[in-house]
Amino acid sequence: MDEMQIRNLVKGWYQRARRERDMTSRFVFLWFCFNAWLAYESGEDTDRQMITWLAGSRAEGSQLRASYDVAAAATTSLFPGYLRTLVGLSPIIGTGRRQREVRITSPDDFPGIVDGIYQVRCNLFHGGKSPNDIRDQELVKVCALILEKWVGNLVGGWRSR
User: Fold this and answer.
1) pLDDT tens across 15-48, in order?
2) What is the domain extent for residue 50?
3) What pTM value is reported for the model?
4) CA proximity to 11, closest of 121, 155, 144
């Protein structure tokens, strides 16, 4: 797909996510947005390669990173509080055989935040998040709120171009 097709795909899933009241569904639709743009922007083949690429990116080379930086710098938004909540829920333990552990050291730990959200996605998609576990649901909710603002900034940036 070309850039306009990817943008339209992201916009469509973003609009769908915004209509969702269920935070798990909202997270899933926002992940579709995030992952589609990340695949396009990074040019990488696997999710792990894309996440590694993003974790090492700078705003000058990534619209996704630039959109995150705008949200993180906003002192009047709820976004910094969402980041602090995610840090407080760290470590995030993988549910695979290795039980990979993601520690987010601070709200400024961009690589840790990216990896933490990805680990929540992996746990959810591979059967490691329970709809009855309060901590699991809090993780999904805060990651959905982070992605909503992050992807919203990305989509909003396209409107101003």
Assistant:
1) 999 999 999 999 999 999 999 999 999 999 999 9
2) 3-159
3) 0.95
4) 155
The letter for the amino acid at 52 is T
Task: Give the pair of three-digit tokens for residue 58.
Answer: 């700078």
To which residue do tokens 């909540």 refer? 85
**What is the distance of C-alpha 116 from the center of its chain?**
9
Tokens of 13: 């899933």
Q: How many CB atoms lie within 10 A of CB 141?
A: 16
Burial bucket for residue 12 (CB in 10 Å: 0-12, 13-18, 19+)? middle
Q: Minimal CA–CA distance to 37: which of 60, 26, 25, 53?
A: 53
Q: What are phi and psi of 116, to 5 degrees?
A: -65, -45
